[in-house]
Every structure is written in C-alpha cells, then in structure tokens.
Amino acid sequence: MEVRVLSSAVTTQGLAAIRRESFLLEASATDRLRGIRFMPHPLRPWIELWDCLDGNFWGLCHWLERHLTPEEIRWQPVLTVASIGWNLRHLGEMLDHYLTHVFQVREHAVAREPLRTMERGAQDDGQFQDLREIAAYHRVLRPDFREFLTSLGEEEMDRMLPGGRRAHSFAWAVGHIAEHESYHLGKCTLLRNLILARRQPQ
Question: Model-level pTM greater than 0.85?
C-alpha cells in the first residue's frame, strides 16, 4: 500500500515534468518496466518491485529539489526524528553496506567516510542537506544494486548470505531492502507534508 500511495503522490506532481528536466531523474519506473515486461527472468517480480521503488525515489527527489530549501531538507520536527536528508542518505548507505558487506560484490564502500547512518542508535546531526550530493551517491549505488539483482537466479535467492551472524537468505535481504526503501520514502513524504503545512499562515 505504501508504494501505491507514494506513486500516486509523484504522479499528481506531473510525471511528464519529472521525466523532462531534472538532473536527478535517472529513469522513470515506467521506462524501466517497459524494458523488462517481456523479459524471461526468474526474478522478474523482484526487479519490477525495485524499479517501482526506484522510480518513486527519483520522482520524490526531483520534487524535493524543485520545491524545498536546504534548510527544509535538514529540518527535524523534533531532535529524535530524522530529516528528509538523513533518510535519503540512509537509503544510500544501506545499499552501500549491503553491496559491500552483505552481498560482498564490492571490495570497498562507495562512501569515503564511515556509514554513520547505519550505526546502531545513530542520530541526525543536520549535516545532510545537499540533494545534489545525495543524488550523486545514489546514482552509483542504485544501478549497481539493480545489476546485482538481475544477476541472481532462483537458486541463489534461496542460498544463505555469506559470513552472516544470523541465518538469512539472499531472498530475505532483497526483501528487507525493498521494505526499508518503502518505509523511509514514506517518512520523507510525511516530512514533506509537515514542511508544507508549516508554510501555511496560522
């Protein structure tokens, strides 16, 4: 349900405009789905789900880039609630962590600094307000994750993750990433709505 709500919100902002001008939009979910609609891939439902989430991500980023200020991107309603910028950065660090340390398809993380939003109990310190920087980070990671996803077969999805403390399969990890993506995009959408409400005269 979260995916449908967010997809609808993006559509109301004008999907045609999103495709046309933004430096942030790499590819729409519609364009991606057109390319795999007839693809005989055993993981087609997983790939379609990721493409939908990916389209939602870039559509939301485009809207934020056009309508919110850096101060609003880092805004927190209370100190214990992370900002839009922190949530978007966290989604990138999650992919960085999984590709490097869980799936082990990268030798080194993309980020040069520690993955601070992945640390247990990490709190937003207001440093993530540059959408261009966040988008550049995601432009490297998101195509890499999709390429990794399309490289998997049904047998590999049932395989246990390498070197993990808990017995989780590749299928669990891919599902966890999709769930996490939807959850944090939903938080960003809620924060966006709160920011717009704050602009209204009292």
Answer: no
